[in-house]
Design a protein that fits this description.
By secondary structure, the protein is α+β, with helices and mostly antiparallel strands. The chain has one domain: hypothetical protein PF0899 fold, CATH 3.30.2320.80. It contains 2 helices and 6 strands; from the N terminus they run αβαβββββ. It has a 3-stranded mixed β-sheet with strand order 2-1-6, with helices on one face. Helix 2 (about 40-50) links the parallel strand 1 and strand 2. Helix 1 crosses helix 2 (about 40-50).
């Protein structure tokens, strides 16, 4: 379950930022997760709940999980599309293989709301 190590990394990042800002408490954390990031969101929330309770600055922090569906771009027909399957190898509109993933694999700490 790598979600626990992800939760611990998120807590460490949040604490580092809180320390820089001399914050007494972190009220909210916004986390962006792409649907293709390979993260079990329920397991991540469960892990975050346990990890955040272990620190006074984080213990009452609200976690907002922002899920992003995948979005592909075709360089041949210059269109964006939501793929119907994860392992897509061609544009679903024109059939070209010159495609790239724009969104869907991200996992990031987007923002914190702190209390001075």
């Amino acid at each position: 379950m790598h979600e626990l190590s992800i939760a611990m990394s998120i807590a460490d990042l949040a604490l580092d930022e809180a320390s820089k800002a001399k914050a007494k408490r972190i009220k909210e954390i916004d986390i962006e997760v792409g649907e293709w990031a390979g993260v079990d969101c329920d397991a991540l929330l469960f892990s975050l709940d346990a990890v955040l309770k272990s620190d006074a600055i984080l213990k009452d922090t609200k976690v907002n999980l922002i899920k992003h569906p995948p979005l592909m771009h075709c360089n041949s027909c210059n269109s964006d599309f939501k793929p119907s399957v994860q392992y897509i190898r061609q544009c679903e509109k024109c059939g070209a293989a010159d495609i790239q993933l724009l969104h869907g694999r991200e996992l990031s700490l987007k923002s914190l709301i702190i209390d001075d």
